[in-house]
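Reviewers of the previous submission asked for a worked example of the structure-prediction workflow described in the proposal, so we include one complete record here. The input consisted solely of the amino acid sequence. No template or homolog information was supplied to the procedure at any stage.
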Amino acid sequence: MKLTRREVLKGTAVGAAGLVLPVSGLARAKKTTFGIIADIHQDVMHDGEMRLQAFIDDMKDRDVDFIIQLGDFCIPKAGNQKFMDIWNSFEGPKYHVLGNHDTDGGYSQEQTQKFWDMPEQTYSFDQGGLHFVVLDGNDIFEGKAPGYPRYVGPEQQAWLRKDLAKTDLPTVIFCHQSLQEEDGGLENTLEIQAIINDANKKAGFTKVFASLSGHHHLDHNVEIRGVRYIQVNSAAYQWIGGDYQAVRYSEEIEKAYPYLSYTVPYKDPIWCVATIDPEGVFHIEGMTTSWVKPDPWELGVEEKGYLSKETCLPRIRSRSLHFDRS
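From that input alone, the workflow returned the following structure tokens.
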């Protein structure tokens, strides 16, 4: 099923979202627009291909400078080749971030990178007079918390320091896990924030002005020492677990995708488009859809932590994010 752009954008809140950037370096920058999609979970969702196709169609229509997916994309199995073909049909630059679920089923990072045509797990690139950094939040260390790894280790930290020192361009960092919070984000967020803050101090301006992540399936942002830490909501669903299972689709679909009933899917795929222009404004255009019923609250999900009626919603807001230039 191919959605028209009008259908995809139904309910979208489009508005001027402004994040005032540091003046230094922007005189050399060009207006740069890029599409961001997170946590499609092709191996959980029965309609992952439709969701990705809708995103790619919109990015082609908009003629963005590049696209990036923020992880939990797909595992490297042959059955996902059509999904990858959809992604690769975008002819412009396209970038990957490794998520914690992209090696499920016993696959290695190397296998996933090869399947995605992702040369490095940690890398950086320049576009339009701006610098972009991709980190891998899946390093393993002794004494890690139970569950999936969520850590940026010493080798990556050393690389990040050198990479930030080599550029004087305004910089955005991408990572699957949030660099903002240790509760579910990276276990060593404070170490990574310290590297960012040190780079900004040495530059004499807020060189690293934003970090974007997926993972939490939330639409959230916070400012810490002048840096915006932005979480991009999933394109597909909110996970609520086995205690609140509900059957929404046919027996055939539910059998083929056994974890689908552990989620509350979003009716339509959602993503966002970011635009940075040399006048010093970072526009974020988001989207809003609805739940595939029953929603979490109809199922009796307890409101606690990030699972609340205020924060757990099928949307990515268009925001006005103001930046401290001091």
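The first helix runs from residue 5 to 8. We consider this example representative of the routine output the project will generate in years two and three.
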